[in-house]
Amino acid sequence: MNLFICSRKQRNIRKLSDFLRDEVENLFISPINNETIDRIYKKQPDIIILDVCGRVCWKMLEKITRAPSLREIPVILILGRKNKKTIENIKRICNFEVFDYVTEPFLKCEILMKINKAKEIVELKKDFSRLLTKDPLTGAYQRGFLMERINEELQWCNLYKEPLTIAMFDIDFFKKINDTFGHQTGDKVLMELIYLAHSSLPDRALVGRYGGEEFCILLPGTDENLAMEVLEAFREKVEKNDFYTFKGEKIKITISIGFTTYFCEDESSVDEIIQKADLALYRAKQSGRNRVILEPFIVE
């Protein structure tokens, strides 16, 4: 389990570190500043402990509870010693989807009890999220959630001036597989293909089913050169992999990939970026298939 602590108070950081060092798999600690949200976003923790100490913390809480990729993470707040202001803050919590809170001075057993309860919620949410956001056949994200995440990544890209790569890919001559071996084998190949994608792409990559047998790869913080390396490695892995029918017959497949990289130079829409990636995929098909093609992102 990955736990993220945000605090300006060194005494609370030391106390929580002592309490949790042997209780969680990965413990991330961050001061509260303008880069904290970005750190949370990149770490994607299972649980967040946020020490509330001022207006900045409330703004951060608002961002966490609204961002599509963060809002499902349980947040445990640490409030100051019980007084009139703390009571006002407890009432204020009702405006946010906060999992729980503790007040200072807090005990180890109290913190662990909250975290263990949050763990249960995390597992339940993961199961529920898979039902709502994942394609039941392949395990790739459904188009609705995919588009929501692309919009979010585009906002982060513009805010932090990072590149954002979007790639489209599909199986070459997939119809022939269905016609020759049947749709069940076609479904099996799609499942194994997305498994390969998840196992070979970077941790921050997101794979979604855009439509039919066409899939989309989202690579945040990835420029053209790195994207080409990553996508070419994925293409080669698919080409070398052995796929099998339900009867045990070996099948070899290849994929075509088209991608574009957005550099936050203009306020462009998601549709414009996807159109460029789709055009790159079309060019990959037209130029012989089984290749990765870049379409530079130039607003016309």
TrEMBL record:
GO process annotations (BP): phosphorelay signal transduction system
Residue ranges of every copy of the Response regulatory domain listed in the record: 2-119
UniProt cross-references to SUPFAM superfamilies, sorted A to Z: CheY-like (SSF52172), Nucleotide cyclase (SSF55073)
CDD domains, alphabetized: GGDEF
Root EC class: transferase
Endpoints of the signal sequence: none
Alphabetic keyword roster: Phosphoprotein
Reactions catalysed according to its record: 2 GTP = 3',3'-c-di-GMP + 2 diphosphate
4-aspartylphosphate modified-residue sites: D51
Annotated GO MF terms: diguanylate cyclase activity
EC number(s) on file: 2.7.7.65
Domain GGDEF span(s) in chain numbering: 162-297
UniProt keyword Phosphoprotein present: yes
NCBIfam families, sorted: GGDEF
Protein's UniProt name: diguanylate cyclase
